[in-house]
Amino acid sequence: MSNAALAPSTAEPLLQVRGVHTFYGKIQALRGVDVDVHAGEIVTLIGANGAGKSTLMMTICGNPRAREGRVIYAGEDITDLPTHTIMAKSIAQSPEGRRIFGRMTVLENLQMGATLQDERHFDDDLRRVFTLFPRLKERATQRGGTLSGGEQQMLAIGRALMSRPKLLLLDEPSLGLAPLIVKQIFDVIRELNRNEGLTVFLVEQNAFHALRLAHRGYVMVNGAITMSGTGRELLAREEVRSAYLEGGAH
Amino acid sequence: MSAITSGISQTPEGAERELENQRDAARGEPPYTPAPSADSRLAASLKDAAMTAAVVAVLTVFFFAFRTDIAVGGLNLTFRWPLWLSWVAIAFAGRFLISYFLFRAPERAVAGVSKSTSVRPAKRFSAGKIFGIVMLLAALALPFILNTLLPSHNRYLLDLAILILTYVMLGWGLNIVVGLAGLLDLGYVAFYAVGAYSFALLAQNFELGFWVCLPMAGFFAAMWGIVLGFPVLRLRGDYLAIVTLAFGEIIRVVLLNWTDFTGGPNGLLGIPKPTLFGLEFKSGAGSFAEATGIPYSPIQRFIFLYYIILALALLTNFITLRLRKLPIGRAWEALREDEIACRSLGINTTNVKLSAFATGAMFGGFAGSFFATRQGFISPESFTFIESAIILAIVVLGGLGSQVGVVIASVVMIGGIELLRNLGFLHALGFDPTEYRMLIFGLAMIAIMVWKPRGLVSSRSPSAIYKEKKKIGADLVAQGEGH
Asked: What is the pTM of this model?
């Protein structure tokens, strides 16, 4: 597990978040956030409840919009584009709370994920997802809403992968799942990154697993980035350990 | 790679599934059970029906099969086997229909345990399909059945059938908006009105016939669907319902007050009747009777109208069923499930919503122009809110998104209202059903919603079936998604 192998390169990052301020009405959720995600990296963003992690994720997707600052993907300013246009630029998202289409079958959910893809790729992509998550294949004809939490998370990731993304945005994939399932899902993310060079931006509360998985990490407190570094560095830091790993007071 | 991912543990998932089921139960949803196979259900239903028929046969044999009349020198016994047998047959058929279509899952199925059904036969003759075909054949033969069985009430019943079919079509149209796309529309009657007035005005001002105006009426209604769609793009649920309700009323009030154009409360008169390739249904020259040599009868026009609305309704159904299997139809359903997820998958929800509104409105417009040609006269009074409410009730009672449900609900609701109007024999008991018509009707609706909170047909059939393919040749790939 060579986390340090992919240190930030000198090339331009695939995703740049520059000084982003986001508001919900009058309430400021993000206060000048800077985040870089380089191609081929797994980058994680950790933080407590309400820190603004998911808001950053959603701001990257254009809903809500950043009031100040820029979001640049592959050299293109995507700050003011509508969500569906952003998602058409080889970015895929597994949103917070999974948001499976409950009354539609697993297969239909995956078809929805492939909406933007050329349909000639569908069979190959479907097979790839079923290889990554054999459980989904068993449940192909089952309604999404009847899957277990772990299976739903697999479906959310599988659905996102159906659009052949270069950048995968994952919002708390470990939420509410048994530790063993979390491990399985994180193993798949690692595999995808290592074998296919998929770039992953991972928002997590489960700091320990996320930092072990990620090449680099950011810590967010009250809508601002307070720390950053490689996964190992952050894991080793006392503030991180006390705040996010041992449940200590912050 | 698969070595890592394949061995997912059973235990925590089992616990989670329990939780899911509990949550479903709390929400009033039935626990997930794999649909029992059609065959076993068929067998069980047939058994049920046979038992019911046997009970009816025993109970009614003395009442129906034997009849005694006082005659000279004692009693005169007559046998009425056909009557008895027909009641037994009715009991059998009724019980079969009920157990097969209403009580859908009589077998025990363990929740969460599904057979290895990743590969399914592509072609199945499901119960729903057989039922649909039987209903279709019955609908096609209906005018002739009525003509043979009940010639005295022929015209009245045919008229009722036309009315029911109009509501079936409207229900199917609204089903696209409410059932598939999940956009609660309380102003659907507006599109019905647009269709009717489009045809009437085009016919009067430009002397165009029904068949030319029909597509135009659909087009205008679709345009109004988009006009309504734009301001409500960001609304959902209750808020959407209020705005659509207002829209329906606005259209009606405009029609009522724009006297120069629409005739105001006086309505529009003299709307032309539809023709069959230019042949009119009347006596004399240039008529259907003259051209075909069939003697003229006023009922022919009703039969013709019946087939027009049947064809229009079937067109609606066919298009809806096809669309469900296409990306746009899937997107509608996905929109109903979760709008945010839709956007995060790169779906332009604006287009999806507008297309749903436009498609639903178009069928409303078709139905409207049919209504105009059937009545020959339209006025804003025909397009009040109660119409929207009835159509929505048909869709909700039938089961959101279910095509068969809409048919059953239309027959029950429209046919039921008519039936209550005609229960004259209850007068003898000092009870006038016509006075309590709406009350009985409301109670029936409440009963259905208590008994089947998700509508009469609440199951949803998947739009795609996963079929594993061993080898994928280039020719298959070229066909598209290949399943």
From this structure: 0.76
